[in-house]
Specification:
By secondary structure, the protein is of the alpha/beta class. 63% of the residues lie in helices and 9% in strands. Helix 1 packs across helix 6, helix 8 (136-178) runs antiparallel to helix 10 (189-227) and helix 21 crosses helix 22 (586-597). The longest helix is centred in the middle third of the chain and has 53 residues, at 238-290. The protein is elongated and about 125 Å long. GO terms for molecular function: ABC-type oligopeptide transporter activity; ATP binding; ATP hydrolysis activity. Belongs to the ABC transporter superfamily. It is a multi-pass membrane protein.
């Protein structure tokens, strides 16, 4: 296991600590950087060395002025010593600054990559119910924009905040060694800066929160618009879609302007306040020099250090809105990282070689935040290798049964057993390796046909690939394409027909040699010719395997070993195709309706 993966897994374990609650972004940030403490300390060490020119210059300048104003007390040697020391201090900045950035950057980039990887891993572990409540656009905003904002926050903390704090600390120490009264005057800037932050903090935090949520909404709206493009174009609804996005953009623009104006008002208030402080410092030290309390050259020394303190305080105040944005992004990513709505099943028992014997034992199910049962007191025994088809009106519970079989949801009551092992005890990752799922809308990605067939299986021989290509009735398609199996199929397989996409999905299922097959309306959207080819491929797929089929077109399930008719979440009747027709019950009426509609 490589080092980066170890660090990602360590980061995942950190977020098991519930004390990292939303509302404690500083602790969250410290937790992120705890494994990189060595790099941070080295970075601070080189920062102190590389920053020394800024601290040495006021001292050297004051020395040279004092030497020039009292030539009788000093020789030219003192001038040269001051100049040489200053030159050496300046030149060392090149290597030490590079080392400071090197170690800071390593820590920041490791955390950035680790945080994104941890977010992706967490998304894979969230329950399907949790994903149903999250828009894909919002998730993208969290993984991309919010992590980038946290990275920027880290840079500000390592560069701007560290620089400002160190400059203030060193300046105050040097001034204290020269004059306690001037030090007291300088120290007054700290409560002033705290007061300014306190006046703006809540408004900046609230405005950042509103702006972040508006960006997530806009991202979700744009993502939805892209997915709906075929429907929008087909119905001439381009203007409706544009107006919907424009409305979101107008809200975002308004929030953005409000945030920018608040930050501008905050920044200008800081600048005016501390310019007045600097003017007061110049007057105060000039009076001291006029009275002979300090040498004339010390006016430059104090003015230089006070200017450094003012710049540091101003830097902290100006960077505060950016820090607030970073903290808001921390709140955003913790919504995912600390989300406890993960995989429904937590079992660890390895299933071994799956035979495909399935038992539904008095299973009831209702979706979260709903009192209505989708399934009620359902019992069903399925033998290994049996093909069971579920039919019934929409909302009868057919697709819910398949989702329960996959383990996306757990029964509200009762249990499901696989080969006699309750699903509660099963290791879902191992169990699902024995599953193959073919949906109505085949889910393909924008790679090649080969990539889509062998998805997740890197060591598949060419012979095995062509074997499943033939079994899926796909050879004629592959041989007509310019690059054969290596032909790129476009996003979601957009360059292929529906039947071709379905056959690729079936080939992907076949190559895994699954023991349990789940077919959810796999041919309902196809024309007769495509359906015939897909049906042939499906017969090869289900041979000798336990298969569950959901179908609206009853003619496609004539060969099923058993047909289960669902009505209002319960089994109304079951039997073979011919048996159900002879009973003249629910199935007979459905068949009659479909026949009369043809």
């Amino acid at each position: 296991m490589d080092r980066s993966l170890n660090e990602t897994l360590d980061m995942e374990r950190m977020f098991d600590d519930r004390s990292l609650a939303v509302g404690r972004p500083a602790k969250f940030l410290m937790t992120l950087y705890k494994p990189h403490l060595g790099k941070i300390l080295l970075s601070i060490f080189f920062f102190l060395i590389k920053s020394s020119p800024a601290w040495a210059l006021p001292i050297v300048t004051a020395n040279l002025i004092n030497i020039a104003t009292h030539p009788d007390e000093h020789s030219m040697k003192a001038v040269w010593i001051n100049l040489i020391v200053m030159a050496v201090v300046l030149v060392q900045n090149i290597p030490t600054h590079s080392l400071y950035i090197h170690f800071a950057s390593k820590a920041i980039r490791f955390v950035e990559a680790g945080l994104r990887s941890t977010l992706v891993r967490k998304l894979q572990h969230l329950s399907m119910a949790a994903h149903g409540e999250l828009k894909s656009g919002k998730l993208q905003a969290k993984v991309l924009r919010d992590v980038e904002a946290i990275e920027f926050l880290s840079k500000q903390m390592m560069i701007s905040v560290l620089s400002a704090v160190m400059n203030m600390a060193v300046s105050l120490i040097i001034v204290y060694t020269h004059s306690v009264s001037v030090f007291a005057f300088f120290f007054m800037t700290i409560p002033t800066s705290v007061f300014l932050i306190s006046q703006f903090r809540k408004r900046i935090r609230r405005t950042n929160n509103e702006f972040r949520k508006e960006i997530e909404e806009m991202s979700g709206t744009v993502s939805e618009m892209v997915e709906m493009l075929p429907v929008t174009r087909a119905h001439g609804l381009e203007k409706v879609a544009i107006d919907k996005v424009d409305t979101s953009l107008r809200r975002l623009k308004g929030r953005g302007i409000r945030l920018d104006m608040l930050e501008a008002y905050f920044s200008s208030s800081n600048w005016v306040t501390f310019q007045l402080f600097q003017l007061a410092c110049l007057g105060f030290t000039s009076v001291l020099a006029y009275r002979g309390s300090i040498p004339v050259g010390d006016i430059v020394l104090y003015q230089g250090f006070f200017n450094m303190i003012m710049m540091s305080v101003n830097q902290l105040l100006n960077v505060y809105p950016m820090i607030a944005k970073g903290f808001e992004s921390i709140h955003s990513v913790t919504e995912i990282l600390l989300n406890e709505d993960t995989e429904e099943y937590k079992g660890k028992r390895k299933p071994g070689q799956i035979r495909g014997e399935i038992d539904f034992e008095r299973v009831s199910f209702s979706y979260r935040d709903s009192d209505k049962h989708v399934l009620r007191n359902m019992s069903l025994h399925v033998k290994p290798g049996e093909t069971v088809a579920f039919v019934g009106e929409s909302g009868a519970g057919k697709s819910t049964i398949l989702n329960l079989l996959i383990g996306f949801y757990k029964p509200t009551e009762g249990q499901i057993s696989i080969d006699g092992i309750p699903m509660n005890e099963l290791d879902m990752l191992e169990y699902r390796k024995s599953l193959a799922v073919v949906l109505q809308n085949s889910i393909l990605f924008s790679g090649s046909i080969r990539d889509n067939i062998t998805y997740g299986l890197p060591d598949i021989s060419e012979e095995r690939i062509w074997e499943v290509v033939d079994m899926a009735n796909l050879r004629d398609v592959v041989e007509q394409l310019p690059d054969g199996l290596d032909t790129l199929i476009g996003e979601h397989g957009g360059r292929l027909s529906g039947g071709q996409r379905q056959r690729i999905a079936i080939a992907r299922a076949l190559i895994r040699d699954p023991r349990i097959i789940i077919l959810d309306e796999a041919t309902s959207a196809l024309d007769n010719i495509s359906e015939h080819k897909v049906q042939q491929a499906m017969r090869r797929l289900i041979k000798g395997r336990t298969t569950f089929v959901v179908a609206h077109r009853l003619s496609t399930i004539r060969d099923a070993d058993r047909i289960v008719v669902m009505k209002k979440g319960q089994i109304a009747e079951s039997g073979t195709y011919d048996e159900l027709l002879q009973r003249r019950g629910e199935f007979y009426e459905m068949e009659a309706l479909q026949t009369s509609a043809l």
